[in-house]
Write a structure and sequence with these properties.
- By secondary structure, the protein is α+β, with helices and mostly antiparallel strands.
- It has two domains: 91 residues, 2-Layer Sandwich (Double Stranded RNA Binding Domain), CATH 3.30.160.20; 32 residues.
- The chain is 54% helix and 14% strand.
- The protein contains four helices and three strands, in the order αβαββαα.
- A three-stranded antiparallel sheet has the order 1-2-3, with helices on one face.
- Strand 2 and strand 3 form a beta hairpin.
- Helix 1 runs parallel beside helix 3.
- 15% of the residues are buried.
Length: 123
C-alpha cells in the first residue's frame, strides 16, 4: 500500500525514494495521533493533528506538530524520521551539509576578524 500525503506528487515520490534508500518500510513504523498544542486555536485543541512516529527496528521516535493538518504532519514526521536515521547511519544529509557550511563560514569570519585586530594593534 502506497501512502499519499497532502503535498505535491514530486515530494511524495522523493519521500518514498528516501525511505527505500534507507531501508525503511511502512510496516516498521508505529504511528499515533495525539492532540497538538500551541498555535492553531480551536482546530488544534479539538483534533488530534500531532503525529508520533516510532521506527521499531531502531527505536527512534519523532513527534511532529508543525502544521494544522494531520496529513501534512504525517509527511513531515516521516521526513524528520528519515533525517535522524540518516544521521545515525552516517549518511550525509542536506541539513548536515548546510550546518557544516555555516560552521566553516563562521570560522572564516573569526579568522578574518582576528587578523584585522592583530593588524590594528600598535607595536
Amino acid at each position: 500500500m502506497t501512502l499519499t500525503f497532502a503535498v505535491s506528487p514530486g515530494k511524495n515520490a522523493e519521500l518514498r525514494q528516501r525511505m527505500e534508500a534507507l531501508g525503511v518500510r511502512e510496516e516498521d513504523l508505529e504511528e499515533r495521533f495525539v492532540r497538538a498544542s500551541g498555535k492553531g486555536g480551536q482546530h488544534v485543541n479539538k483534533s488530534s493533528t500531532c503525529v508520533q512516529l516510532l521506527h521499531r527496528p531502531s527505536g527512534i521516535e519523532v513527534k511532529c506538530m508543525e502544521a494544522r493538518s494531520q496529513s501534512l504532519n504525517r509527511f513531515f514526521a516521516r521526513r524528520l524520521l528519515l533525517e535522524r536515521l540518516a544521521q545515525e547511519q552516517g549518511v550525509p544529509t542536506a541539513k548536515a551539509d548546510a550546518a557544516e557550511r555555516f560552521r566553516r563560514q563562521k570560522a572564516r569570519r573569526g579568522r578574518k576578524a582576528a587578523k584585522k585586530y592583530e593588524a590594528a594593534e600598535p607595536p
